[in-house]
Design a protein that fits this description.
By secondary structure, the chain is of the alpha/beta class. It has one domain: Aldolase class I (TIM Barrel, Alpha-Beta Barrel). It is about 45% helix and about 10% strand. It contains 14 helices and nine strands. It has helices at about 5-15, 20-25, 30-50, 90-100, 120-130, 145-155, 170-175, 180-195, 210-225, 250-265, 275-280, 285-290, 300-305, 325-335, and strands spanning about 50-55, 55-60, 105-110, 135-140, 160, 200-205, 230-235, 295, 340. The strands form two sheets. It has a six-stranded parallel β-sheet with strand order 2-3-4-5-6-7. A three-stranded parallel β-sheet has the order 8-1-9. Strand 2, helix 4 (about 90-100) and strand 3 form a beta-alpha-beta unit. Helix 1 runs parallel beside helix 3 (about 30-50), helix 4 (about 90-100) runs parallel beside helix 5 (about 120-130) and helix 6 packs parallel to helix 8. The termini are far apart.
């Protein structure tokens, strides 16, 4: 291992920060250097959360989306996407089934679908909180006006995931059509935090046209925003998007960034994402060892899981499905961790507002 890398990692652990060139060296670290970085990320996670891993039951309730993001298989221009939309009752049934399996967080995720109205979101959140009173409800449904976010919060929603995907305005414009703006996305994130949600942001690793400088900008935004949750996963192309021919993002760099993010924000809730598990057979286990502490098994009805394809090859059956949660537990244990069946709230509740 290079002595300067060890020095950089140790400095990051001590200070939670490095100059840009130091971050660049760690982002691009390989071999023994990367192994040391990731091991320290795991140690920092354990110092805050112990060996606990929190499971979130994911309900992908609609794959309709009004947006046309160039990387996403749900983009409105994808005529090959077989669309579906669950009813409020179906969403509630998924949440109750997850509750009976032991889940104490349910994540409602969907495209920006006007056909599943804001009023329906409010209604289903209330029903879940009534039926599963000690369950945290997380929403991941994109950009909304402030009054809608407030209504979701007032109905009982606890958390909101809204990945910016990149904190560089120039890079953002290469990934999205002109009607979408990074400024609007960041305004939404700050509004969610003001209202009182536990808020998650995040970015893709290896997205088309991304530079290491763009990733450093993502880390700098993360430092400033101080999210409660952070989603980092490799870009994986979808055959029905303009980015179909671009290479997938690096698993190794993703693992480095999980470790860096954990060290910079020790209390953040950090998933080992489905994309990471799709890109590598041991992606999620390696993610846990690098500092991740959340996994999101799928509670969606089996017939629709294969239709919610943000990217090609997405895991939709097997260990990641909620019914196979015991297999998931064993995989987590193989990484020296255990499942904590609590809500798994942000460790710094009351701070970072």
């Amino acid at each position: 291992m290079k002595e300067n890398i060890k020095t950089l990692v140790d400095a990051l652990v001590a200070e939670r920060n490095l100059p840009d060139e130091g971050l660049r060296a760690l982002i691009e670290a390989e071999s023994e250097d990367a192994a040391y970085l990731r091991a320290r990320g795991g140690e920092v996670c354990e110092s805050v959360y112990g060996k606990a891993v929190y499971l979130r039951g994911l309900v992908e309730f609609t794959n309709y989306c009004k947006n046309d993001c160039f990387y996403c298989g749900l983009r409105r221009s994808n005529r090959e996407c077989e669309r579906y939309r669950l009813t409020e009752e179906e969403v509630l049934d998924c949440a109750i089934r997850g509750y009976e399996l032991g889940f104490r967080t349910v994540v409602l995720q969907g495209g920006e679908d006007g056909g599943f109205s804001d009023e329906s979101v409010v209604s289903v959140v209330r029903k879940i909180k009534e039926s599963c009173p000690d369950t945290a409800v997380t929403l991941s449904i994109g950009e909304r006006d402030a009054d809608k976010y407030q209504a979701f919060f007032d109905a009982g929603a606890d958390r909101y995931l809204l990945r910016e995907e990149t904190a560089s305005p120039e890079h953002y414009s290469k990934l999205h059509p002109p009607e979408l703006s990074l400024e609007r996305r960041l305004d939404c994130l700050y509004e969610l935090k003001r209202i009182g949600f536990q808020v998650g942001c995040g970015f893709m690793v290896g997205a088309p046209y991304q530079t290491t400088g763009d990733i450093i900008a993502d880390l700098r935004f993360m430092q400033k925003f101080k999210p409660h949750m952070l989603g980092i996963g490799p870009f994986i192309p979808h055959k029905s998007t303009p980015f179909r021919d671009f290479p997938a993002g690096s698993v190794e760099m993703t693992l480095n960034l999980l470790a860096i993010s954990r060290i910079m924000l020790p209390e953040v809730l950090l998933p080992a994402t489905t994309a990471l598990g799709t890109a590598s057979d041991r992606g999620r286990e390696d993610g846990l060892l690098a500092g991740a502490n959340v996994i999101m098994p799928n509670l969606s009805p089996a017939p629709v899981r294969s239709k919610y394809l943000l990217y090609d090859g997405k895991l939709c059956t097997g260990d990641e499905a909620a019914e196979s949660v015991r297999l998931m537990e064993r995989r987590i244990e193989s990484a020296g961790r255990y499942v904590d069946w609590g809500r798994g709230d942000f460790a710094g509740m009351g701070e970072n507002k």
